[in-house]
């Protein structure tokens, strides 16, 4: 209706974990005009190219607009009722015959908190299985596990503002310039204003981020624990220890330090193992020792590793020793990959967690949750983590899987195994906004979901800031919210407790749960508490300003946000203390050899997001890197007999793909970089996931995306 007024809606970017505020100005009949929201503290009006191009991605071509069901081998359009009956009936009969662990949900850090909350309640409280995992397993689960070991709960202590208040920023395994661009802009500005701010980049690749760095340590892939154990040992030896803090607020230092000293007490040897210049290593150790206000930010180079959890703890150990946590300008800082990986963690979206940061292995908390939900049962053992989940599907112990807002046939390691699994699976349900992805082609039931700009709810970014995503476009075709589809299936399976009117009602329940029996009866106090936000009226939820949790309500009725945790030195372990974790260094699971002599590293390109189902629609984003590439060192190219600009084949023990050779200039000898974005839907099947080894971290279950042995040959 062209007579409708022009309207500006404040919402949140659906891509990376910075969680920028976006304003969308909608004039009927035209593409929404996208701008940065100057009132959002995360970005203060800035947007990166991906966020700025959001308007171009809202076109409807390729959208899944109607439910579909498989009949005699092919898909046909169906009504919602028929599709939902098929899902509910299929789940119910499989559960009746094989038990609750024979079904599973595989969800996504792209979901809103409200969708995520309902999915988790459905599985853990009503189906009675913890077989719900999320693609955050591929992204943040090592940080989650590291936080729980160190702090007693999955908590990010600091705020983005700390990057501006720090005197040293250490970026570990993070191409911040490309993957968290507006945060990088803040660092850039801070350094311009105050050139004494030291930036250290620790990354095997010389990325765009390194251009800002005063010091770049191009570590050998997988050796981060040696580097940080070496730092811990160095700091202790040089008396850089906050003895009062360590004595009052921590435990476990002796073991951690003995472990660090054993392998990493000699910086010269650490430099050899990490393959970095010993003088540069010492410069880093000396700089860290001399600077109190240090932020150590880490991302996928740390998480996506078979020793990812130990890497996280090795970093945190150095902050605990020096008491550099809980105060402005300092602390360990996990940079979240996805827009709502944090929100998913809050509602227990991982197979080894419960809602509201309650613990699966804590019987009092399990009881509290079951009572709150008035649920017939509660999962009492961890479910299958992503890689194991799809193995169980192939082996046949999981017979039905509902995949929501993610594309595991492209994004999981050993992705051809996922294809085999879905081909064998009795019932594959896929909820998506896109009709044809590598994963949707294996669906028995397809459910059309709402996309960004159409759906309504909340997300939480890396600094614990809860922001609203608001709808400003009508639902296309018959697309519906994911929470609605989940509730409809739950109702059809005879479950009560899924009668939500809207996203606001779900958020209200989530907020109430976070305060439910918190700290009562020996169940332990949970820091994640947003009970101050319960009881909000619908219009207050709609008008909600971005706010960092925990959120309690003050006596005068105002909401109290929390910028920083642990200022008082109190942690979430029962002892109230933080824990040092002894981290014995170990190399990646699969070593290089004569047959596969190069280490494959995977990651993002600047202008694309995940499997390109949205960013791929924007021509200007495609310009930056129009096709998949293999980035390697010219000398390695020579040895492999491949030339820049020509096609080459990359092969691992798990799969192969073809892409064009490039010399980006940032790769050390012995390593190869291939981006994660291209799928089997593009011209050639360039799913790098098919090559990635399925080794996982033993604690977090996070796959080793940064180290797969490969060889390269002319195509
Ligand atoms: Fe979106 Fe991240 Fe870019 Fe911000 S930095 S606009 S959240 S992709």
TrEMBL record:
A cellular-component GO term for this protein: membrane
Record-level GO BP terms: cellular respiration; nitrate assimilation
GO molecular function, one term: oxidoreductase activity
Keywords: 4Fe-4S, Iron, Iron-sulfur, Metal-binding, Molybdenum, Nitrate assimilation, Oxidoreductase
Keyword S-adenosyl-L-methionine among UniProt keywords: no
Domain 4Fe-4S Mo/W bis-MGD-type span(s) in chain numbering: 6-62
Known cofactor(s): Mo-bis(molybdopterin guanine dinucleotide); [4Fe-4S] cluster
Family: Belongs to the prokaryotic molybdopterin-containing oxidoreductase family. NasA/NapA/NarB subfamily.
Protein name from the UniProt record: Molybdopterin-dependent oxidoreductase
Organism: Massilia litorea
């Amino acid at each position: 209706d062209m007579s409708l007024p022009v309207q500006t809606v404040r919402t949140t970017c659906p891509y990376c974990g910075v969680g920028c505020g976006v304003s969308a100005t909608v004039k009927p009949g035209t593409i929404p005009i996208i701008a940065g929201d100057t009132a959002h503290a995360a970005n203060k009006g800035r947007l990166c190219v991906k966020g700025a191009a959001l308007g171009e991605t809202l076109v409807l071509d390729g959208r899944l607009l109607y439910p579909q069901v498989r009949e005699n081998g092919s898909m046909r359009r169906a009504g919602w009722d028929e599709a939902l009956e098929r899902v509910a009936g299929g789940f119910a009969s499989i559960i009746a015959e094989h038990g609750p662990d024979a079904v599973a949900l595989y969800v996504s850090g792209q979901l809103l908190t409200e969708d995520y909350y309902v999915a988790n309640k459905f599985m853990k409280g009503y189906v009675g299985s913890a077989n719900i995992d999320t693609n955050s397993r591929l992204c943040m689960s090592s940080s989650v596990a590291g936080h729980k070991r160190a702090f007693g709960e999955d908590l990010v202590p600091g705020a983005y503002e700390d990057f501006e208040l720090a005197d040293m920023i250490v970026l570990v395994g993070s191409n911040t310039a490309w993957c968290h661009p507006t945060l990088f802009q803040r660092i850039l500005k801070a350094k311009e204003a105050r050139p004494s701010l030291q930036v250290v980049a620790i990354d095997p690749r010389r990325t765009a981020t390194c251009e800002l760095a005063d010091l770049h340590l191009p570590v050998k892939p997988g050796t981060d624990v040696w580097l940080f154990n070496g730092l811990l040992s160095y700091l202790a030896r040089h008396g850089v220890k906050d003895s009062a803090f360590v004595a009052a607020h921590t435990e476990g230092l002796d073991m951690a330090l003995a472990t660090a000293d054993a392998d990493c007490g000699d910086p010269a040897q650490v430099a050899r193992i990490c393959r970095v210049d010993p003088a540069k290593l010492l410069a880093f150790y000396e700089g860290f020792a001399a600077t109190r206000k240090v932020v150590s930010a880490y991302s996928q180079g740390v998480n996506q590793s078979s020793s990812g959890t130990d890497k996280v703890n090795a970093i945190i150990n150095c902050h605990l020793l020096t008491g550099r946590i809980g105060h402005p300008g300092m602390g360990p800082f996990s940079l979240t990959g996805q827009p709502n990986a944090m929100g998913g963690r809050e509602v227990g979206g991982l197979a080894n967690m419960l809602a509201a940061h309650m613990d699966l292995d804590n019987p009092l908390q399990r009881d509290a949750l079951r009572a709150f939900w008035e649920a017939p049962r509660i999962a009492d053992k961890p479910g299958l983590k992503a890689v194991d989940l799809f193995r169980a599907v192939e082996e046949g112990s999981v017979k039905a899987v509902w995949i929501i807002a993610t594309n595991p046939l492209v994004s999981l390691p050993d992705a051809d195994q996922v294809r085999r699994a879905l081909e064998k699976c009795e019932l594959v349900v896929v909820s998506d906004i896109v009709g044809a992805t590598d994963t949707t082609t294996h669906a028995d039931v397809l459910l059309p979901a709402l996309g960004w700009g159409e759906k309504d709810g909340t997300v939480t970014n890396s600094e614990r800031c809860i922001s609203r995503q608001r709808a400003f476009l009508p639902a296309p075709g018959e697309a519906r919210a994911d929470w609605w589809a989940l509730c409809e299936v739950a109702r059809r399976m005879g479950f009560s407790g899924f009668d939500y009117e809207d996203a606001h009602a779900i958020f209200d329940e989530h907020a109430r749960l976070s305060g439910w029996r918190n700290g009562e009866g020996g169940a332990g106090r949970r820091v994640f508490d947003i009970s101050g936000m319960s009881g909000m009226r619908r219009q207050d939820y709609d008008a909600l300003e971005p706010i960092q949790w925990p959120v309690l309500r003050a006596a005068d009725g105002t909401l109290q946000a929390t910028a920083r945790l642990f200022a008082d030195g109190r942690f979430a372990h029962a002892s109230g203390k933080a824990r040092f974790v002894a981290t014995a260094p170990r190399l990646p699971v699969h070593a290089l050899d004569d047959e596969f002599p190069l280490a494959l590293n995977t990651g993002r390109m600047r202008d694309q997001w995940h499997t390109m189902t949205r960013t791929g629609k924007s021509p200007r984003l495609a310009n930056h890197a129009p096709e998949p590439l293999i980035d390697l060192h010219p000398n390695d190219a020579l040895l492999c007999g491949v030339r820049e600009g020509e096609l080459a084949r990359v092969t691992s023990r798990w799969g192969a793909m073809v892409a064009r050779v490039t010399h980006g200039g940032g790769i050390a000898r012995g390593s190869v970089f291939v981006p994660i974005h291209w799928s089997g839907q593009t011209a050639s099947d360039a799913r790098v996931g098919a090559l990635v080894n399925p080794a996982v971290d033993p604690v977090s279950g996070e796959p080793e995306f940064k180290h797969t042995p490969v060889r390269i040959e002319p195509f």
